[in-house]
Design a protein that fits this description.
about 80 residues, mainly alpha, about 80% helix, extended
Length: about 80
């Protein structure tokens, strides 16, 4: 288990990992179709995508939180 202070970093890593995995697979298939080395191409795309997505979560998560609060009404 990780100490509580690492929760924001762990959240960003896990969330960016899920999103990068799914999006890289979908976009690899859309752009290249199904072929013999599909999973190798997907893995390569995933590694690049996660490398970009992880730091971007830190930038856009606070902005997204603030924007969603402004776009919703309190009860």
């Amino acid at each position: 288990m990780f100490p509580q202070r690492f929760q924001p970093v762990l959240f960003a890593f896990i969330m960016s990992g899920f999103m990068a995995f799914l999006m890289s697979g979908i976009l690899t298939f859309i752009n290249l179709g199904w072929f013999d080395a599909f999973f190798a191409a997907w893995l390569k795309a995933y590694l690049y995508a996660h490398g970009c997505a992880f730091p971007l979560v830190f930038i856009f998560a606070p902005l997204s939180r603030k924007l969603s609060v402004k776009l919703t009404q309190p009860r």
